[in-house]
Specification:
This protein is mainly β. The protein has one helix spanning 5-10; strands at residues 12-15, 20-23, 28-30, 33-39, 42-45, 50-52, 55-61, 64-67, 72-73, 78-84, 87-90, 95-96, 101-103, 111-112, 115-116, 123-125, 130-131, 136-137, 142-143, 148-149, 154-155, 164-167, 170-174.
Length: 183
């Protein structure tokens, strides 16, 4: 299933040939820019996802962005999978607040003595994760289920399940945190 007419009117959708889109039911997307360039790239958005005023970019070859059911992505966010054989996964029931940035690549290549030193790396965001305003998640990071990342934090390293990370660079400040009073 591809974007319907209303979704195409409310968003700027640019998808080159030989790329794929899979959309779930009850998708609410408005004011977004979706750009898929290269070949054999895939954007998968599950059921009941809400995305507003976000830039979703896939560039390169054999890359995947997957957004799990019930997730919400806020205004001004940037979700990017670039280069080759990269996966960016956002789990189910995640909340990415305003201006969240999730990037699998530095966006440019750097070399030292002829060898590339900044390859792109996949990102995995678990289920029930909350990224607060202006959070940045950089290449190679895994965020455990039900983790929380504080305002203006920059994640350069992975964080465990049910933890809170804050700062720049972000550090885990609390573990075994629950969103339920009885847990």
């Amino acid at each position: 299933m591809s974007f319907n007419l209303i979704q195409r009117i409310r968003n700027k959708i640019r998808v080159q040939k030989n790329n794929h889109i899979s959309l779930g039911n009850n998708l609410k997307i408005s004011g977004c820019q979706v750009s898929i360039k290269g070949k054999n790239n895939t954007l998968k958005i599950a059921d009941n996802v809400r995305i507003r005023d976000t830039f979703i970019q896939i560039t390169g070859e054999n890359n995947l962005i997957k957004i799990g059911s019930g997730s919400v992505i806020g205004r001004g966010s940037y979700i990017s999978a670039r280069e080759k054989n990269i996966t960016l996964t956002i789990g189910e029931n995640c909340s990415l607040s305003r201006h969240a940035k999730v990037m699998t690549s530095d966006g440019h290549e750097l070399y030292h003595k002829g060898v590339r030193i900044n390859e792109a790396k996949s990102i995995t965001i678990g289920n029930g994760v909350w990224l607060a305003d202006n959070t940045t998640v950089l290449k190679g990071v895994t965020i455990g289920d039900e983790a929380t990342v504080g305002i203006n934090a920059t994640l350069t390293k992975s964080i465990p399940v049910r933890s809170i990370a804050v700062g720049n660079p972000a550090k885990v400040v609390k573990e075994n945190v629950s969103k339920n009073q009885n847990s």
